[in-house]
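JOB MANIFEST
job_type = single_chain_structure
chain_count = 1
residues = 432
[input]
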Amino acid sequence: MSDQMRIPSGKRVLLTLLGLGVTFITAFVGPTSPAAAAEYDLYSTTYLSLYDRDQAVGEDQQFISLYEYLSLDLWELSGPEWSFHLYGWGRKDLGDDTDDDGAGGSLSSAYAQYSHPEGKRYQLKAGRFYLTEGTASETLDGVFTRGRHTSGLGGAVFGGRPVENSVSSDEEGDLLAGGRISYVLEGFAELGLGYLTEEGDFNGDDRREVGGDLWLRPAEGIEIVGRGLYNLATSGMASYRLAARFGPLPSLDLLVGGEGYRYGDLFQSSLNSAFGFSILDPDDEVTAVFADLDWRFNGRSALRAGIRNIRHDRSDPGDANRGELGVRFTLEGFLDGLGLSAAVQTADLPENEYSQVRGYALKSMGNWTFSLDALTQSYEEEISGEDTVLQVVGSAGRRFSGDLKLSGDIRYTESPNFEEDLAVLVRAEVGL
């Protein structure tokens, strides 16, 4: 985690205690009045996680950690157009430390927003926020503004200090800025062209990208989505994707498309010598074609099928083909959901071949919800002497009066990495 994302230890603990206080006070006192809820939304989620891991290699691990996630939304500040949004989390280790500090946290977002009364005509954000605009997907401390003319022509600009989530914390940019011009034909098409630059030493150069995106609806039941990103710093196509969705019937959905990327161009701002590149070759180019079918019939049953072909320029890892077939049901009066799926992947290298079977069940009883999910994978070639993965997850939750919900998960895993891995998660969710 970069310094920009870190919170001093005292503030981490304060954030955790604040969220815990909100959770438990609300649990015993009760939610606020409906009138107050119209002016703000305060939501708290508290997790208590326990891990007991028997490692295949190395010492066994036992962790007990307390997490608090807190979100706040304030509405109608100086009029209905203005609002404020905050989201953050904190962690305190109660057992063995999961890192050097035994605590952690992040202020994920804290920004003021202005939205035009007519919706998409104009928007302004200032503070720390996550933005998605065309091919740009970033978190920054700065300003973002977007507007659109009644003719359909629009534009957006943004700038500020990036909040890095790169693999190496020493690769941080000093300034991130960019923009996008667009044209929207409401209900039929949207085209965009954007540019982004980030000052920093990313493999010896600043980050500079240009991207294009499109959305088309040429006819009822047909949608085409595409996007491409070109890395100006490395002079290479970082990624592209083109997909078409066909829905001739309300119960039928077919998605077909293709995508590709080159590791060195796509991950210029995050790849570094720590990888050693023996695991990931920056010169490897990957292309894939895929098709996914979802067919819902009888109102209570559905069939899903998918195929994917993945091709690498490098013989290691080589090419692969994956196919999946699954069914899901609603058994009225018995189960809300029951599903079973199977998948097989064949590949040039036996180490990349496997078969997978998954099954799940969902049940609601009044204010209670229950679920059971089981998955097993069998590898063609053993990994650390094992060729099978087994994971079973059971969940139960209850919603109380108001906006209080308590739930818990138990997960058991056997894999080449863990001889046995038992994880318990207790969750309290409160809306104030």
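[summary]
Residues 38 and 122 are 23 Å apart (CA to CA).
Confidence is low (pLDDT under 50) at residues 1-38, 166-170, 273-277.
exit_status = 0
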